[in-house]
Amino acid sequence: MKRGFCSAIVACVLTVGLVLTLFSGVQAKTEWRMALGDAPGGTQWALGERFAKLMNAYTKGEVVIHLFPTGQLGSEQETVQNCRLGTLDFSIVAINNITPFSPTVGLFTLPYMILSVDDAVKLTQGPIGEELNQNTIRDAGVRLVGWSYSGFRVMSNSKRPVKTLKDLKGLTIRVPKNAIMIDTYKSWGVNPTPMAWDEVFTALQQGVIDGQDTPIITQYVMKFYEVQKYITSIRYVFLLEPLIISEALFQRQTPDMQKLILRVGKEAQEYCRQFLILKEDEFKKSMREKGMQIMDPADNEREWIEKATAAVWPKYYKSIGGKEKVDKAMEFMGRK
């Protein structure tokens, strides 16, 4: 009886050992989650999907990244906080939603700081961008591994054409919960309505707000043409939407995996830059065909620029690291 029992135990051990031997060389897949605030089809999606595909390809299928668009995992600021806590792996968010956690990146949302795609690329990919990345790691617990270049935040509304600051009066305009952007609208004589991004479409639909500002591509993929009539092509903020990773997660990776994540981030952001160039005019044409009127502000936006830069820049010199940071950025872009 004892001998039979022992034989059974030995057989069981040998069987388990055989199974472990057979599967010891098989590596379990790594699965990560990525949050996006926007709907599929826009610049956030272009960056996130490309990053996910490249990571999967370079690791021969061992890394799988699941994308959750349209705020499924919470508001953009909530996803920054969740990455910070290590309960979320990746997120793509508007840079203004990182500013509350790392104030120095507010440099990128100063009105009329960035005036072109080239300006955006120079600032994000040069020493200034790297310095702000290090500040974000220190202050927010997240690392910027790639950038979505999403275009200028143009203003839409459902009431009337807007070409001058006088035309803005009486309109209820949504802005992000970002102090710099709120103060920019105040400098134009508007008392804006701060609101989380995931609430905006419904608020426009119900008439709670008259308008908002986001890039052309974002407005198209979010179908704002269904609830808005007029677009004014202001250029006060060029929207940068970085791909962030939880720094805790990044530090748990091997040196080779860390290098791969950073490499893929660079490749994905270049794809996103090309996506913006190829798609912005196409989407603008489509929105016109759907009945939207798109116009430029009067007098080359001169009054808008003068009022915003005079009122807002000096107020935020301290929070972004000093006036010298602005001067350095201007000189780096070839503007003094």
Briefly, what is this?
By secondary structure, this protein is α/β, with parallel strands linked by helices. It is built from 13 helices and 11 strands.
Write the layout of secondary structure elements.
Blueprint: H1 2-23, E1 30-36, H2 43-58, E2 63-68, H3 76-85, E3 90-92, H4 117-125, H5 127-140, E4 142-152, E5 154-157, H6 165-168, E6 174-175, H7 179-187, E7 193-194, H8 200-206, E8 211-214, H9 216-221, E9 230-232, E10 238-246, H10 247-251, H11 255-289, E11 293-295, H12 302-316, H13 323-332
Parallel strand pairs: 1-2, 1-3, 6-7, 9-11
Antiparallel strand pairs: 3-10, 4-10, 5-8, 5-9
Helix pairs in contact: 2-11, 4-5, 7-12
Give an overview in words.
- The chain is 48% helix and 16% strand.
- With 336 residues, the protein is of the alpha/beta class.
- It has a single domain, classed as D-Maltodextrin-Binding Protein, domain 2.
- A five-stranded mixed beta sheet has the order 2-1-3-10-4, sandwiched between helices.
- Helix 7 links the parallel strand 6 (174-175) and strand 7.
- Helix 7 (179-187) crosses helix 12.
- It is globular and about 55 Å long.
- Mean pLDDT is 92; it is low at 1-26.
Largest sheet: 5 strands, mixed
Q: Order of strands across the biggest sheet?
A: 2-1-3-10-4
- Output the structural class: alpha/beta
Oligomer classification: single chain
Count of alpha/pi helices? 13
- Whole-Å distance between the termini? 93 Å
Helix-residue proportion: 40-55%
The CATH superfamily is: Bacterial extracellular solute-binding protein, family 7
